[in-house]
Design brief:
single chain, alpha+beta, six-stranded antiparallel sheet
């Protein structure tokens, strides 16, 4: 049977504190899948965006000869002031350390670990999380701190989204825009909060440098959620991240006085704001969706609905 992560199981993750990354050992005290509390989750689902893990931080101190009779496991877990964190499932790594107790206190269990295991585990986890983060927004993992989470109000049950993974947020909302009957395309919804125009506004500016490309002007833009993403990377289709719905400056509008238009909304924008002009008249404007993008967004929507139905049962 598939391996599962249970309540009270030990995990490790990377904890950012005072600008440094630390290996953190914890004990799972809550698991949520699509907003619903569950008792277990299979390892293979930890990478899914709708899985959240809450854990109590464990202390770590050198073990004594009485605690480790083999003299090979030089660290043991210990009590720690109650500190609980909730993070996306992909940020944790399940472990299976040796469980031990003292003869004088047989009911007081703790875990035994060795330095080489902890060092290797820390390096492996740091490398995995660094690759995950840096490919998205080029920040160092030590600068990330705790992820800010938002909830998608259009999902039932609610789905938590990590705002530090902006492209994943765009992809999630793109599935709603393309396939959710609750989201009206006629409203030209925001690609981040799904609210209708003109409640939100996004403006573009040029990045610094001679060859600076477009980026979101954070000072002028208005949205319910503060989600940042790498503009250039978000505009490209990849096999793992097919969504390209980003704000684009309409070539028929004044760049200084009008906000940018989300790519998925451009056809409707032209229909209502520029009825006598055609998108085809702007060959350099990347406004159309490839069949690959449409199909991949559809697959993600179908998968989302299947998962939500299982959780609600």
């Amino acid at each position: 049977s598939a391996k599962t992560l249970l309540i009270h199981d030990p995990i490790v993750t990377i904890l950012c504190c005072e600008g440094k990354a630390w290996l953190c050992i914890g004990e799972v005290n809550a698991i949520k899948v699509d907003g619903a509390s569950v008792e277990e989750v299979v390892f293979g689902m930890l990478s899914e965006e709708f899985v959240l893990i809450s854990f109590q931080v464990s202390g770590l101190r050198p073990s004594t000869s009485e605690e480790d009779t083999t003299a090979k496991l030089d660290w043991r877990t210990s009590t720690f002031p109650e500190t609980t964190f909730t993070v996306p499932g992909r940020y944790v790594e399940p472990i299976n350390p040796i469980t031990a107790s003292l003869p004088s206190k047989p009911s007081l269990l703790f875990y035994l670990l060795d330095s080489s295991f902890l060092t290797g585990l820390g390096a492996s986890l740091y490398s995995k999380l660094s690759a995950c983060f840096i490919c998205e927004d080029e920040r160092q993992i030590s600068d990330l701190g705790l992820a800010n989470m938002i909830e998608c109000e259009y999902c039932n049950p609610l789905v938590a989204l990590d705002t530090s993974q902006g492209k994943m947020v765009l992809e999630h909302m793109a599935a709603h825009i393309q396939h959710d009957p609750k989201v009206k395309k006629i409203d030209q919804p925001c690609g981040i909060c799904l609210r209708p125009a003109p409640i939100f506004q996004f403006y573009l500016e040029k990045s610094k440098g001679a060859n600076g490309g477009d980026r979101i002007d954070q000072r002028r833009s208005i949205c319910k959620h503060q989600v940042q993403f790498h503009y250039s990377k978000a505009s490209k289709v990849t096999t793992t991240s097919p969504c390209t719905n980003i704000p684009i400056q309409c070539p028929a509008c004044s760049a200084k006085s009008f906000p940018a238009i989300w790519k998925y909304n451009l056809p409707l924008h032209f229909k209502h704001a520029h009825p006598n002009r055609s998108l085809d008249g702007f060959p350099d404007l990347d406004w159309s969706l490839t069949n690959f993008e449409r199909e991949e967004i559809r697959k993600r929507w179908v998968k989302r609905q299947a998962t939500s139905q299982r959780v609600r049962k």
